[in-house]
Amino acid sequence: MGIAVKILPRYTYEDYCQWEGKWEIIDGIPYAMSPAPSHKHQHLSSNLSFLFETSLRENTCKHCKVYQPIDYVVDDNTILQPDLLIVCKPITGKVLDFPPDLVVEILSPSTALKDRNTKFEIYESQGIPYYVIVDIQSNSIEIYKLREKKYMLEDAPQDEAYRFVLGADCDPSFVLNAIWD
User: Does CATH place domain 38-180 in 3.30.559.10?
Assistant: First the structure.
């Protein structure tokens, strides 16, 4: 461990609750979530939310809910705000304190490295069944499905419907390219 890491202060959920603005904490290190996402980022997030929500309703799924950024408290030193989540169990507190069933991160130049590496490892270690990465630069969607505790990239043609198997008749599906409309 380098000397810089040893002297960095570590923050907790209690500290996080006192801050203004949007933040994430990973292993006690704070990350500012500003400036606000680009208009394209927000539009894609809205489209994805609509497509997931519509598909869940068409399947009469009453268990799974779609959320845009909410606090996902992994532990006292790691609080994340994924761009979009699907949760298939009731959230009883003011934060999500258990792994969601699906997480989406929309890459931006300032977050791509963290989303592709650090968050990828966290979501995988938490056993989240699906991690979806939306790459604005290449207009592509990567779907990682948890298999034997490791994320595997799915072969998901962008111009075909992909079915996310969440269980309990809650299997949303839509043509992936539809998010770009």
Answer: no
